[in-house]
Design brief:
This protein folds into two domains: 97 residues, Immunoglobulin-like (Sandwich), CATH 2.60.40; 98 residues, no CATH class. Strand 5 and strand 6 form a beta hairpin. With 214 residues, the protein is mainly β. Helices cover 2% and strands 31% of the residues. The longest helix has 4 residues.
């Protein structure tokens, strides 16, 4: 005769929001977020009516689409957001496969959306770049999304960030948007030690159209 003791633990804990991308400050206009729960969600309960996306002091944002990415992660789509702080709240009608509901404080997350700030350029600094060619930086696996540091400058000049010659063997990338106040001819030029390249985008926001000057 064999006797077996079976211990059954009833799952009563509701699902929790454990991750969201972006998590802090996005580097571009945000039109979707990826939300991750700690357990599988009953798909029928996760709908736009159960999600509240709100900008501080500015009201609600409509969620236009929901798609499963796998691994308990879902992508929420919406119109591009203006700059500011946003919070996502999941209603208690959302459940896991056992029927447990989402409850506070595990039902929310927040993030910052990109905000356009006129008058500043972004300076990305990449340390430990060998040689003098621009390709030494652009071929580095950190380029362009993982700089050593990021600074902001009101002038198109790296000297504003590094005012002396104490920095060597590095690469710098300055980016920004130039909006002319009047139509006309404008002169852009480079003076650098060592090599440098200037890219202009005469088509505006189309990244496929650019002019390069060495």
């Amino acid at each position: 005769m064999i006797q077996t003791n079976l211990v059954v633990t009833i799952d009563t804990r509701g699902p929790r929001v454990v991750g969201m991308t972006p998590t802090n400050t996005a580097a571009a206009l945000v039109d979707h977020i990826d939300v991750t729960f700690d357990t599988a969600i009953a798909a029928a309960t996760l709908n736009a009516g159960a999600l509240s996306l709100e900008r501080a002091f500015a009201g609600l944002v409509a969620v236009n689409s929901i798609s499963a990415l796998g691994g308990n992660t879902y992508r929420l789509g919406f119109a591009p957001l203006a700059g500011g702080v946003y919070s996502l709240t999941v209603a208690s009608t959302v459940t896991d496969l056992a029927g447990n509901v989402v409850t506070a404080p595990n039902d929310r997350a927040r993030f910052h959306s990109f905000a356009f700030r006129p008058g500043l350029l972004t300076f990305h600094y990449f340390n430990n770049i060998g040689g003098t060619a621009v390709g030494g930086m652009t071929s580095d696996p950190r380029f362009p999304d993982e700089p050593t540091a990021t600074y902001y400058t009101p002038v198109f000049d790296s000297r504003y960030v590094f005012p002396d010659d104490s920095h060597e063997n590095y690469g710098g990338r300055i980016t920004g948007v130039f909006v002319p106040t009047v139509s006309g001819n404008y002169l852009f030029y480079l003076a650098s030690d060592d090599a440098s390249q200037l890219y202009l985008n005469p088509a505006g926001t189309d990244p496929g159209c650019s002019d390069q000057k060495n």
